[in-house]
Amino acid sequence: MDLATVGGLTAGLVVVFFAIAGGGGDFQQFINVQGMIIVLGGTFASTMIKFPIKAFFVAIPVGVKVAVSAGGMNPVELIRTSMELSELARKDPRKLLSLEDRLPSIKDMFYRKGLQICVDGFDQQYIREVLNAEMDLAIIRQEQSIKIFFSIAEAAPAFGMFGTLVGLIQMLSSLEDPTTVGAGLAVALLTTMYGVLVSYLFAQPIAEKLDQKATADGENRVIIIECIVLIQAMTNPTLMWDRLEAYLPENLRHKAPEGKKEEGAGEEDG
User: Fold this and answer.
1) What residue spans define the domains of the chain?
2) What is the pLDDT of residues 122-158, one digit of tens each?
3) What pTM was computed for the model?
4) Tell me: the pLDDT tens digits for 170-192?
5) Is the pLDDT of residue 42 over 70?
6) For the chain, how big is the Rg over CA atoms in Å?
């Protein structure tokens, strides 16, 4: 679970709660069905016009799930795991076939698919072609989900303003009847609030988080492809680290397991 996302959403809801309760307000005063329909209905309608309906209904639950879930393996963990697998393939008489027993323990589906292709005996060119195609399609799907959430973030305040105009028109058209002024004013103010909450507490933060995770996921997949190729070649763990260290940010470099490096160096010398 991504504690930052869950914590941020929770903190935002707590702020809204205290903003309402702190002034002695009645929560029912902040519930307006007409305003909700204007903001939510208008936002969803606008977004569905821009994107295929199937993509829209898939992006919402999947996007929220990805935003609140923990990220995948960190780059150092990916490289260390690959070093262990390569060393296992070098020492086991079954070579790459010995890695088949490790497949169930690989949680990253992209990594597992690449390792399966490697175990099946395909060459490096085929491995790169398959995994690069998979990565490109994943990027396209992620970008569409991000665009959908940004579209929701853009549309919600606009329909909130639209609801405000509707409420003001209703209020001004019935000034002769004071009993109807309150309903129009409630719509005018609450729709703006709903639009702001949907956009800035929900849609835009999730879109930004999805964008960050997509970037990190893309970087990891580039590392995974190189890891699988090096595993297929049964590269010495020391040389593998030297090749892959360049893909790490500065603060994560020089963290190779010393035991692995020394053992790999010893094998290379032998």
Assistant:
1) 1-31, 33-270
2) 888 999 999 999 999 988 888 989 999 999 999 999 9
3) 0.79
4) 787 777 777 767 777 778 888 99
5) yes
6) 27
Contacts of 118 (CB under 8 A, 6+ apart): 96, 99, 127, 228, 231, 232
Sequence-ordered list of residues with C-beta below 8 angstroms from that of 76, at least 6 positions apart, any chain: 248, 252, 255
Q: How far apart are CA 84 and CA 90, in angstroms?
A: 10
Alpha-carbon distance 91 to 164, whole Å?
71
Query: Which residue, chain included where needed, has tokens 């959908």?
Result: 148
Q: How many helices (H) and strands (E) does the chain have?
A: 11, 0
* Alpha carbons within 13 A on the beta-carbon side of 129: 5
CA angle 81, 218, 148 (to 5 degrees): 140
At residue 66, the pLDDT reads: 83
Q: 106: which residues sit within 8 A by CB, 6+ positions away?
A: 81, 112, 115
Instruction: Between 169 and 254, name the one with better pLDDT.
Output: 169
- Nearby residues of 8 by Cβ (< 8 Å), 6 or more positions away: 205
Sequence-ordered alpha helix ranges (H) in 92-203: 109-119, 124-172, 178-197
Q: Please give the backbone phi and psi of residue 106, each rounded to the nearest 5 degrees, phi first.
A: -85, 110
